Amino acid sequence: MSAPGQFAAGPGRGESSHGVRFVLLVLVCLALMLLDHESSQLARVRQGLSVAMYPIRVLVDFPFASWRNLQANLVDREALLDENQRLKREQLSASLRLQRLDALESENARLRELLDSTEVLGKRVLIAEILAVDLDPYRQRFNLNRGLADGVFVGQPLLDANGIVGQVVEVGPLTAEAVLITDADHAVPVSVNRNGLRTIAVGTGDSNRLRLPYLTNSADIQVGDLLVSSGLGGVFPSGYPVGKVIEVRIRPGQSFSEVMAEPISALDRDQEVLLVWAGEQDAAIPEAANLVEVK
Amino acid sequence: MSRADHDLFAPLVSLLLALVLSVLPLPDSIVAFRPDWVAVVLLYWSLIQPRRYGLFTAFWMGLALDTLSGSLLGQHALALLLIVYLSQRFHLRIRVFPVSQLAMTVIALLSLYEFMLFWVDGVAGRTVPLIERWAPVTTSTVLWILMLVFLERGRQQAEARM
Predict the structure, then answer these.
(1) Topology given in CATH for the domain delimited by A123-294
(2) Of A61, A69, A259, B68, which is least surrounded by CB within 10 A?
(3) A157, burial (CB in 10 Å: exposed 0-12, middle 13-18, buried 19+)
(4) ipTM for the assembly
């Protein structure tokens, strides 16, 4: 670089004040990180910053959203007719199953009454779009276009048409940040649908693998078993599909076997997810109870 | 465009663009090689106009990046502050380096940047794969050199015309 003439003189106001400012700002950063890590006192600050960053998120999402719109507008008639017929067939079979479900639900309510256990209230859901914004590539997180204004809360479960997707970890006024069940820092309490065996499915950081590290060698689990959420822990509603076991490796000499599962939801392909206000009156999430809307 | 307009316009737009680029969705195969856009652009402006773009710019850009990427608040800010401070501390020396030596300096600074991010992640107990952390350093360095060469040439032409 042989053009020193274009460089301005220096950071200005003397080297020592430059150093002092650096130290002060570093201290501010350290304090912020400490507060952010240890407590939720910075929620307000984060929300403010989140609003300030909203235009950037929308700007980044815009081309992708308009491309999707364009694609939706350019579908030809044949394809629409096909889709319509397919949806009608699906609707028919779904409504048949729903009729059975209605009967089962009322039966379930009667049985619960007999057992005097807590009543399952209706669940309110809201469709949220996933913003096409890449977050930290080392963690499985994404932004949603719903926030405090829609009543989204931290710890809220996210579902799609197939099963459990993840949960909300941070809420801003207009957007929310959610974590997938396959994030390396996330775990879902599950039970095996076949026999009710309870365990925990831990994320791997790979969006189509879950790990079940807490199963002993003698546990009754086989390839193909469906894992559903067990409802323990109070975050996820019980009985929703989470994954399918794809590999069981028993390691003699180790007390736990190595079991891998594949998530049921299309975690890396979803564009819309459902935010669920779980109806169950659970003591573990008092905030959720206030938001319940009986339908 | 007058000189004053130019001085304010290009840095602001480039910093904003850097923010956008650092969250733009990329295919999975190349996402690990995404350059640290903000660090690169900030380093450039803090060397070119150290009076105007320095520690405070680094701090605010860092907070913006923290908010966008959902990391710990202050994590990117700290890493950016550190490299901007070092580059400004030695900017009189850095600015007369030949390109090869400049590349080495930038590699060192960006490695430090990645290391700070990695370190804070580690202290905060977040799981991070180590190897992939270093891929952006190479792409960022190449980007930095390219940017410096191109922008400097454009600037000289602009000055010559004035």
Answers:
(1) Thrombin, subunit H (2.40.10)
(2) A69
(3) buried
(4) 0.78
Which residues 52-111 of B are in CB contact (within 8 Å) with A? 52, 54-56, 58-59, 62-64, 66-75, 77-78, 81-82, 85, 88-89, 91-92, 95-99, 102
Whether the CB of A80 is below 8 Å from some CB of chain B: the reply is no
DSSP state of A254: S
Which residue of A lies nearest to B55 if distances are taken between CA atoms? A22
Section A223-250 average pLDDT: 88
Instruction: Report which of residues A6 and A252 the model is more confident about.
Output: A252
Residues of chain A with CATH 2.40.10.340: 123-294
Measure in Å the smallest separation between the Cα of A30 and chain B Cα atoms: 7
Distance to chain A for B75, nearest Cα, Å: 7
The answer to whether A257 and A272 are in contact (CB under 8 A) is no
pLDDT score at A87: 92
Query: What pLDDT shows up at residue B48?
Result: 78
Number of residues that make up chain B = 162
What contacts A287, CB < 8 A, 6 or more positions away?
A: A153
Residue with tokens 């663009």: B17
- The answer to whether A15 contacts chain B (CB < 8 Å) is yes
- From the list A182, A156, A186, the residue with the least C-alpha distance to A171 is A156
Chain A residues with CB-CB distance to B18 below 8 A: none
